[in-house]
């Protein structure tokens, strides 16, 4: 049974599916900025209404201490497997709106892509699955599988309240496999991500004088918090780009020569990564390719720094404090909590006696590694072959999706990460976009995936696609 | 002839003199911020009207490419000396208004002080001279000296257009001595500043990738501009607090043991400076007192730093650039232009090959040293003794007033720097204030100064106060 009717429905409703996405993208659902909390709530409410119209059951807006979770399910086939669909409707800040070619929350279709904050991260990608469900339900009044949908509003701030929600609803949420699209393709080749880095997000604040001082009158006699912070940041890395914190690399898993050769074949080249990085120069740990540096090696990045006066002109001050936002990306078998202890110990060691320092932990997430031979992973490969017209590559991502680690931990199930975004989609940057071709193909891949999974998973192992892993990872 | 009638007038009009100051302080005449350009213009216009009402002649608002200069004079006594009065009506930014106890541009009288941006720097202090002129003119329909007033609107941004104004009007502005109050007392003792540090204000921008990147996807492969900037800032000072730029100290004048002992007697103690610094810790060049570090030693301060995301929460980015604002304070015989060359050369040397750096020069000013034995300095000491009831100390300041160097250069005249601000007046900080007692006493000192100068300067050397310098500097 091919999902012919569902595919036909999807193809003949592309303009409607696009219009729905544009509506979804209009909400400035920025979870990091308190002033957008009402927008986040309105977006959740719109999404819940939309899921009801699509035909899902038990739609609910579940409040948390932060942004609400939007839940929906369709579980009318007790003998079929259940897919847990995850996505997030919150988006990154777009405070740099003046650097966008079109306003971030006024979605604009231009040269075959939709431009808006959230277009690819993650509203556009999560909508491929919503629209696939809609196509099945409209075409057949039924789905080929059971589904449980969790659409989160705090992914961009570390999924703060998701763990306790999963914990509380462990029984109700039980599923066979999780499906998520919040990753990207390898150039224009479809890609399934099987590894994610973990994260540890921190703030380091350095405090000097109790109030801002005149730098003419006091310059030379007082340790400037900006200078002290800079001096401390300079000590976070060695000259050759390694993290300088003692024991930081102790638990980093080393990979076989075979795995590294496989990675070199399947992953992006240094040149490809530098091109995607907009002409930046190569940097970092020696003896690793850039793909390895951003996937199997951990890293520490300063995401922001602020202190003193940074308006136009000159202001002669020594500020009372300066702050940096830092994030670690961690790999198996590093434990975020152990890294946090190491970091705090190291900061205490390198804080000069002439100032005070404070470390605040914002959030953390476990690194993830999924078995490429799991049959859901193979079903996904087949769905790509049918829906996209091309076999996917299996790749590692340097990014972090906290929920993937949580699902592994709470439910013991793997997550299939189908990426439909392009590397140049500017996720987290200005002019974020999603190619319309990827959106429509993504919907077809998802339609196929539900059909294939519905027939096979949890029934028996006569999986239709049985290519060897080495062939898949080409 | 004592200025009895003028003093009587001033004493009986204190509440009017305060009301006038409050009105002056209401203008947010922030020269550094383009959005306040109209406020600067309105303030200049108000000031010109006020000077006309005070009774000065030839009041003019002289436009420049930046903020206008307000000029006024009274030159009706050809045989008497001429005092050039300088002040500035522009103020520091007050973008940190939420840290103020009362709004910075809503002047508030509280516990014997007026709180407002500009209260002591410099509107309140320059007004002591305006009100002294008013008292003389109201009481006697005449002044004891000729005066030429230059009130500038760009002091806080480096007096950009003042030099060319002085150049163009060298003949018309010819005077015997300059008078200015933009400095502070030593605790509650009146103080005359005889040395100022020069300045060199710069921006250092570090550029990485051409656009903001996702720090999960690229972290570890790209040199982060914030980290590169921090690493470069860390290399601006040695571990013992000296500026690390080669040849930076080559032209720094060394002082005799006698001068240093004099300074130790007349200047503030380390403890006094640390108390004024709001509980900060001692830092900087070894073998120098904090007073010496902030006056006879040059310094380099980072006034501000900014890069990446610094809103609430977390944003996983590698920014495309990061910027620091830096200011040198220079001493005799350092040349700001030579120091600029040294800085640019050093930055080029320490810029890693993995990023690009740009240096922008905002402004600079020469260091100043005035002969303490000049008779105008002694006239000022006597005026303090009469008007304030106490002899002043002669002190060095770590601050910079560009015009003092310009006046010395263009007119060959010394500037008498009468400080009426207190060290805890928060010049450049939140809750800037001026004590009302200092304002009223300042007016009387100024009344006395004009009378003493009018009788003596340029006539003959029978100066009434002839104490030895060593006694004065006690």
Can you describe what's shown?
The structure is a homodimer of 474-residue chains. Chain A has helices spanning 4-12, 14-25, 37-54, 123-140, 162-168, 215-218, 225-234, 257-266, 270-276, 290-293, 336-350, 375-388, 402-411, 436-456, 469-472, and strands spanning 57-62, 69-74, 82-88, 108-110, 113-115, 146-152, 177-180, 191-196, 198-207, 213-214, 299-308, 317-318, 321-330, 356-365, 368-369, 393-396, 415-419, 433-435. The first copy, chain A, contains 15 helices and 18 strands. Chain A starts with a helix and ends with a helix. In chain A, strand 1 (57-62) and strand 2 (69-74) form a beta hairpin. In chain A, the strands form four sheets. In chain A, strands 1, 2, 3, 6, 7, 8, 15, 16 and 17 form a nine-stranded mixed β-sheet that branches. A four-stranded antiparallel β-sheet of chain A has the order 11-13-9-14. In chain A, helix 1 crosses helix 4 and helix 5 (162-168) packs parallel to helix 13. By secondary structure, chain A is of the alpha+beta class. Chain A folds into two domains: 4-196 and 367-472, Aminopeptidase, CATH 3.40.630.10; 198-252 and 298-365, Alpha-Beta Plaits (2-Layer Sandwich). Chains A and B meet through strand 10, helix 6, helix 7, strand 11 and strand 12 of A and strand 10, helix 6, helix 7, strand 11 and strand 12 of B. Strand 11 (299-308) of chain A pairs antiparallel with strand 11 (299-308) of chain B, so a sheet runs across the interface.
């Amino acid at each position: 049974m091919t999902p012919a009717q569902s595919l036909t429905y999807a193809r003949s409703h592309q303009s409607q599916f696009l219009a729905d996405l544009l509506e979804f993208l209009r909400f400035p659902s920025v979870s990091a900025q308190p002033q957008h909390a009402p927008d986040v709530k309105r977006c959740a409410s719109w999404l819940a209404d939309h899921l009801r119209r699509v035909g899902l059951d038990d739609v609910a807006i579940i409040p948390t201490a932060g942004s609400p979770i939007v839940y929906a399910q369709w579980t009318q086939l007790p003998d079929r497997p259940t897919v847990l669909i995850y996505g997030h409707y919150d988006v990154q800040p777009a405070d740099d709106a003046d650097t966008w070619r079109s306003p971030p929350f006024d979605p604009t279709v231009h040269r075959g892509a939709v431009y808006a904050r959230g277009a690819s991260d993650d509203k556009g990608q999560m909508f491929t699955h919503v629209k696939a469900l809609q196509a099945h339900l409209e075409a057949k009044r039924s789905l080929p599988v059971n589904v449980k949908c969790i659409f989160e509003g705090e992914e961009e701030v570390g999924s703060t309240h998701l763990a306790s929600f999963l914990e509380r609803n462990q029984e109700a949420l039980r599923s066979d496999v999780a499906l998520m699209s919040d990753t990207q393709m390898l150039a224009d080749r479809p890609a399934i991500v099987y590894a994610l880095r973990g994260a540890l997000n921190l703030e380091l604040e350095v405090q000097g004088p109790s109030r801002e001082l005149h730098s003419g009158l006091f310059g030379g006699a007082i340790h400037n918090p900006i200078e002290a912070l800079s001096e401390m940041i300079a000590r976070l890395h060695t000259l050759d780009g390694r993290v300088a914190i003692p024991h930081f690399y102790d638990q980093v898993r080393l990979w076989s020569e075979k795995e590294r050769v496989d990675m070199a074949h399947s992953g992006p080249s240094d040149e490809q990564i530098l091109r995607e990085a907009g002409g930046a120069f190569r940097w970092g740990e020696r003896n690793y390719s850039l793909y390895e540096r951003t996937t199997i090696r951990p890293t520490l990045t300063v995401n922001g720094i602020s202190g003193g006066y940074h308006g136009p002109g000159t202001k002669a001050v020594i500020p009372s404090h300066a702050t940096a936002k830092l994030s670690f990306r961690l790999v198996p078998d590093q434990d975020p909590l152990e890294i946090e202890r190491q970091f705090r110990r190291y900061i205490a060691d390198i804080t000069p006696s002439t100032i005070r320092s404070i470390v605040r932990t914002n959030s953390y997430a476990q690194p993830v590694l999924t078995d490429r031979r799991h049959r859901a992973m193979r079903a996904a490969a087949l769905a790509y072959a049918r829906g996209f017209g091309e076999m996917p590559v299996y790749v590692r991502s340097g990014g972090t999706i906290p929920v993937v680690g949580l699902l592994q931990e709470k439910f013991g199930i793997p997550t299939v990460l189908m990426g439909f975004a392009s590397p140049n989609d500017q996720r987290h940057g200005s002019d974020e976009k999603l190619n319309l071709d990827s959106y429509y193909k993504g919907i077809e891949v998802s339609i196929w995936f539900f059909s294939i999974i519905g027939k096979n998973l949890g029934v028996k192992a006569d999986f239709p696609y049985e290519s060897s892993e080495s062939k898949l990872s080409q």
